[in-house]
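Morning - glutamine inputs below, output right after.
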Amino acid sequence: MSDAEIIGLSAAQAAREIAAGSLAPGDLFEAYRARAAEHASGAGLNCFTWVAPGAPAESPSGDGAEGVGGGALHGVPLAVKDLFCTEGVPSQSGSKILEGYLPPYTATAVERLTAAGASLLGKTNQDEFAMGSSNENSAYGPVLNPWNRARVPGGSSGGSAAAVAAGLAPWALGTDTGGSIRQPAALCGIVGLKPTYGAVSRYGMIAFASSLDQAGPLTRDVTDAALMLRHLVGRDERDATSLAFPEEIALPSAERLDGIRLGVPQELTAGSSGEDGEGEGIEPGVLDAFEAALSRAKELGAEIVRSVQLPHAPHALAAYYVLAPAEASSNLARFDGVRYGLRAEDPKDLLDLYTRTRHDGFGAEVKRRIMLGTYALSSGYFDAYYGRAQRVRTKIAEDFRAAFAEVDLIVTPTAPTVAFELGEKTGDPLQMYLNDYCTVPMSLAGIPAISIPCGLSEGLPVGLQIAGPAFSENRLLEAAHALERELGFDGSPARS
Ligand code: GLN
């Protein structure tokens, strides 16, 4: 097989070719490794902060997995977001404060995939501590969007999304706290799935906001998302919030949507009031692609229900930007110059060591979140901010529960705009936060949501988000699969 043919395979297809003996794992790995290396550490799209030096040694038996569970993913290279701890491999969470940090252990999510036979191809660039929507908050430089290098790939899993879209990795692992899998997937024209909170172990993920963080797949198609998720889910005794998934994740096969009620909440699908898509609301080109996808869903037999309501969803962003920074301010207290990574030189006392390490090690957005979070949690303000935001969170979860009594799934655009220009929103944090308008409600409710590409606007990909009740991943994947087939989105321009 030529390199071009190899790169043309999805992860599931590559696994099949390897199992059939028609593709050597070493050839597959090397084809991607060479491409990834061209986009590492400031070069090309700047997707990778670390790339494996060579193909992993093949076990002579050739049957892949050493452990239990077989080698269903045998030989398939895997790109992993920087914030997953990988033993002996740099894991810096996009931050200078963790520069050179080599963890002594590997995150459960990564371990599960490698136990199934996947091999670590590289670590992907990301916003620092997963805070961001454009991948411009990385201490290792911004990632560029393969559809247009003057544009952002979205964030915070921007390196993972751009790598998959550009064909530098067959698939990638990312994390989503308020949208960081779905939004970059949308902006790069690929598939991204945020699982039900607790479905995937967070053990070994460098924490941002622990009650929201979830690991999940960024893939070229829905089948690959199902395949990766199948190997990710499950209870892990090292993460007390992890849960046993109630059923096996199936590889989707649906071609129709007969009888499926798709709810279109007005609150998350309203057009922007401003002249050129500025401010709140969805820009016109995104809405057009979204509406066109809904028409196709109807042709497949779905019922479109526009009366469904999520009355508290417009408050989700405000609640999220209290809760997530509050949790972050606590999680990031551990970076003190004593335990890991960067340490200020010649401190005059302990306080000076803490202060200068954190001053030098954290970027501006991380400092902003720590200050916001610390303020929100301070004794006089705790109830006014954190307490109230928690109550809003409960209301949002109740809204979804009520909505799912009327519809099977909820659909919205994933992001209000297509990929924007580098630098366009860096001066205005509120404008940046609005990227998460449609994705944050599901995060607060802990429910699963997938983004699939549904068309182009201004020559750039538009994402369609499908959300369902907790543990409805199989249903989500089936619906996404049927729509994906019908929409026939062509992602190849980003790979060439
Ligand atoms: N963009 C959001 C934030 O900056 C979400 C990030 C994420 O999901 N990790 O917090």
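Note: The mean pLDDT is 95.

O.
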